[in-house]
From TrEMBL:
Single GO molecular function: DNA-binding transcription activator activity, RNA polymerase II-specific
The protein's name: Zn(2)-C6 fungal-type domain-containing protein
Organism expressing this protein natively: Didymosphaeria variabile
PANTHER family: STEROL UPTAKE CONTROL PROTEIN 2, ZN(II)2CYS6 TRANSCRIPTION FACTOR (EUROFUNG)
Keyword Nucleus: yes
Keyword annotations from UniProtKB, A to Z: Nucleus
Length: 502
């Protein structure tokens, strides 16, 4: 019987699916030999790959896109670069908080060289035009400050800013806005990037003060290096016409500069702090916050509708004074304080130098400094006039007393507001010591002015009060005349000679 060999059926013939080749894909997909979905203005492949997409060959091949949003996933302990997120959407992203001590033990993010290079490219994508701008502005030496390499350690500092430092520099509304937008702006504005790094490192220095002095000093030194670079780049930008695209970054930089200026104090020992330390022309530069805020506001105008800070700018307008400033209520000033500061019922905040600072201090009397109540306290600085600051430079005892009272209000505030409370504790104690040495303390100062009040003009009262210090010895007493010795006396209408303790 013949054997039967089963025949294996042959597989059906495979046919290639018919498709139409397209030559309308973008240049980068053609170069990479991948199928392009021909999406406009950007195809999906280019968006995911993180390169600029173009169809006409006008851009360099595989040019890194600076329009992506850098996203840090702290929960997973890694960083990603998500170029699918539009810039305006990036400002709506938020991150979770992390513990600072853990940050010192383990970096919050782990970035590869590609992600770091992308950030560096984003910061320097206009380097040639920036160099030309410095030359045109007569500042060719400034280009060397922009030749800086963004490193992985810098991204870790940015992460600490996003998850920790930013929550300490204002109200909840300001914190949310700053967290969403400042880091995003910093990736394309080097002057802001340096200021973000500086403030965060200054916060690191504050938090490590009780750990090891070397670590704190290391953070502080790095902070000052970035601060110096940020200031130079910022001033160079402001010295020439301002492009509209820079305005939000200018406002953010001004806000961080003001915060850092108040936070930075050289010594934690009151004996080596102003007003006890040897005088230095820069001692009271931090008090120029009000002038800087007004100037930056006029340039950047964060209340304009197209600003990232529009909602914040509309609610906090530093140029608009409240009614109690425009029309002060004399009845709200205690009688003893009215006598001490020579305030009369018909006085205004412009006719009496002490009136406005006293009102600002009085309005914080029943308040505790918190994130939600920063503005009532910061008004003391925002509304400070050059004339009052000149009195502080001269160490006028009544001006010093008002600053001390404000420091005490701030010192009792929320611990998270480190940039305000640190200076208040150190320089507040220094002013207490100074007043004690020269006037027998606050009560002694007030009694002295009450004793000489009878019919003596304000200027001579100051002179008589200061003459009382001779009985305590002449050491540390220096003569100051108009145009000399650390203050613009002409600004406060002081034409006579006085001497003040230095």
């Amino acid at each position: 019987m013949p054997s039967v060999v089963p025949r294996v059926p042959s597989p059906p013939e495979r046919k290639r699916k018919a498709h139409v080749k397209s030559r309308k894909g973008c240049c980068n997909c053609k170069l990479r030999r991948v199928k392009c979905d021909e999406g406009k203005p950007k195809c999906k492949k280019c968006v995911l790959y993180g390169v600029s997409c173009d169809y006409d060959g006008s851009k360099a091949s595989l040019d890194l896109s600076a329009e992506g949003a850098f996203q840090i996933d702290l929960a997973r302990g890694e960083a990603t670069v998500d170029f699918a997120v539009a810039p305006e959407q990036a400002c709506a992203k938020t991150t979770t908080l992390m513990n600072y001590s853990a940050a010192l033990q383990k970096p919050p993010v782990s970035l590869n060289n590609v992600a770091t290079a992308m950030v560096h490219h984003s910061l320097h994508d206009t380097a040639p035009s920036r160099a030309d701008g410095f030359v045109m502005a007569g500042l060719p030496h400034m280009h060397r400050y922009s030749a800086w390499t963004f490193k992985e350690s810098d991204m870790e500092i940015i992460s600490r800013f996003q998850t920790r430092t930013v929550s300490t520099i204002g109200s909840k509304q300001a914190t949310s806005t700053y967290r969403d937008c400042i880091a995003h702006l910093a990736f394309t504005h080097p002057f802001l990037m340096h200021m973000v790094l500086s403030l965060t490192l200054l916060h690191d220095a504050h938090l490590t003060t009780t750990h090891t002095s070397n670590l704190s000093l290391s953070f502080q030194k790095a902070s000052l290096t970035h601060w110096n670079t940020a200031t130079k780049l910022f001033n160079a930008l402001l010295s020439r016409p301002i492009a509209p695209s820079h305005r939000d970054a200018i406002w953010a930089t001004g806000a961080l500069l003001g915060t850092a200026s108040m936070a930075y104090i050289e010594s934690s020992d009151p004996e080596h702090a102003w007003p006890l330390k040897p005088p230095d022309p820069n001692d009271l530069n931090w008090l120029k916050l009000s002038e800087g805020k007004r100037a930056v506001w006029q340039i950047a105008d964060p209340s304009r509708p197209d600003s990232m800070f529009y909602a914040l700018g509309k609610s906090v307008n530093h140029l608009q004074q409240p009614d109690w400033v425009v029309t002060p209520d004399f009845a709200s000033v205690p009688e003893r304080l009215a006598r001490l500061f020579d305030i009369k019922p018909d006085d205004t905040v412009t006719s009496n130098i002490y009136y406005l600072p006293l009102l600002c201090v009085q309005r914080t009397k029943l308040l505790t400094l918190t994130h939600e109540l920063v503005l009532p306290f910061i008004r003391f600085l925002l509304y400070m006039t050059p004339e009052f600051r000149a009195l502080l430079e001269l160490k006028d005892p009544r001006a010093m007393l008002l600053l001390l009272w404000w420091f005490r209000r701030v010192e009792d505030g929320h611990a998270d507001l480190w940039w305000m409370t640190r200076r208040a504790k150190i320089e507040g104690r220094a002013i207490e010591i100074w007043l004690g040495r020269w006037y027998g303390g606050e009560e002694g100062l007030m009694q002295m002015f009450e004793r000489v009040r009878g019919g003596v003009g304000e200027m001579w009262i100051s002179i008589l009060g200061l003459l009382g210090t001779i009985r305590r010895g002449v050491d540390g007493v220096s003569w100051v005349g108009e145009g000399e010795g650390g203050g613009d006396l002409g600004a406060v209408s002081m034409s006579c000679w006085i001497f003040v303790p230095s």
